[in-house]
Design goal:
With 328 residues, the chain is of the alpha/beta class. It has ten helices and 15 strands. Helix 2 packs across helix 9 and helix 4 packs antiparallel against helix 5.
């Protein structure tokens, strides 16, 4: 199968400026993990769109489509679609970037190796995600639009962009002074949501979804730092924590029913507060945890995703290790 990979950050997302080191590292880790997984099968012809500054470091055997700063990246992407069978976009949900890429693939009649544009539209908007989770009901963090509920939560207040990816544009305030200063600094409050801070362990789930069903691959622990400006930053994760997976499998089964158009690899962020689990957000794309799964479980996740095109996949781990992924 001819497969096109487009990782947005190292593709051309920052073609006219310096690559942000942490975002570029996270994107590169995901891209190279995907390429190694697909190369391992020896069955696919792989092409990748890349910023010219990154092209030298790609594994041997990959067809590189170089994108220049002056290029219209969507036009280059659309042209590259004509020469492939299937596409994996790796991109943030911010500003509808991921949705646009998925929509372009669908309109070209090519196979998506990720969730559909409709699933991206629902999960990219954190307020819509909250609405769907609450309606089913799946435990989640109470959320309001910031412009309609600009009130400080005494246990701590989280403010995040409605379409942010990971910790992007995500802040936490523990006192009203910091909260008021943050409110003044944020433009377009309707683009943000506000939540109470819930203390606990930050976790993520790596899951395969397929038409209303879900297979939990592993539970991962996230390491999150608070920077001086109250901004949150994901610094790393431990992939495949040794925990009882039963309650997590129950939650992903509920999510599969609530979002039946989720497909392929999906990451789910949660908070474990005492014995309670709260879904924080759903990422309809590859996540940083993906990069440790091969070493942790011995699974080739991209081959499992390709198998889903034929109807089903059966993960059979050959390892059971915990792997640390460092993002900074």
């Amino acid at each position: 199968m001819k497969i096109l990979i487009f990782e947005y950050i190292n593709g051309v997302g920052f073609a006219d400026t310096d690559l942000p080191p942490s975002l570029a590292r996270e994107g590169w880790l995901m891209l190279t993990a995907v390429l190694h997984d697909l190369l391992a099968s020896g069955e696919h012809e792989i092409s990748v769109l890349l910023d010219k500054r990154c092209a030298a470091d790609v594994p041997h055997g990959i067809n590189i489509i170089t994108v220049l700063p002056q290029d219209d990246v969507l036009a280059v992407f659309t042209e590259a679609l004509q020469h492939c069978d299937a596409v994996l976009p790796i991109a943030p949900e911010t500003e509808q970037i991921l949705w646009t890429l998925c929509t372009t693939v669908e309109q070209a009649g090519k196979k998506l190796l990720s969730s559909s544009s409709s699933a991206v539209a629902k999960t990219a908007d954190k307020m819509e995600t909250f609405r769907v989770l609450s309606a089913h009901p799946i435990p989640t963090v109470p959320s309001h639009r910031l412009d309609k509920y600009p009130h400080f939560h005494e246990q701590g207040t989280v403010i995040k962009a409605r379409d942010g990816a990971g910790c992007e544009n995500c802040f936490v305030c523990y006192n009203e002074d910091d909260f008021e200063r943050l409110l003044v600094s944020l433009h377009n409050p309707e683009h943000y949501l506000i939540q109470p801070f819930i203390s606990g362990v930050a976790l993520s789930l790596s899951v395969l979804f397929n038409q209303g069903t879900a297979q939990l691959l592993c539970v991962n622990r996230q390491f999150i730092s608070i920077l001086e400006n109250q901004r949150l930053k994901l610094t790393g994760c431990e992939v495949n924590c040794h925990v009882d997976k039963t309650p997590f499998q129950a939650i992903v089964a509920q999510i599969a029913q609530a979002f039946p158009d989720l497909w392929g690899y999906v990451g789910i962020d949660l908070i474990k507060h005492n014995d309670q689990l709260f879904v924080v957000e759903i990422n309809p794309r590859l996540t940083s945890s993906y990069t440790g799964i091969h070493d942790a479980l011995g699974l080739n996740v991209m081959e499992l995703v390709v198998q889903l095109l034929g109807g089903d996949a059966h993960p059979m781990p050959t390892k059971n290790q915990t792997i640390r992924v460092q993002l900074t």
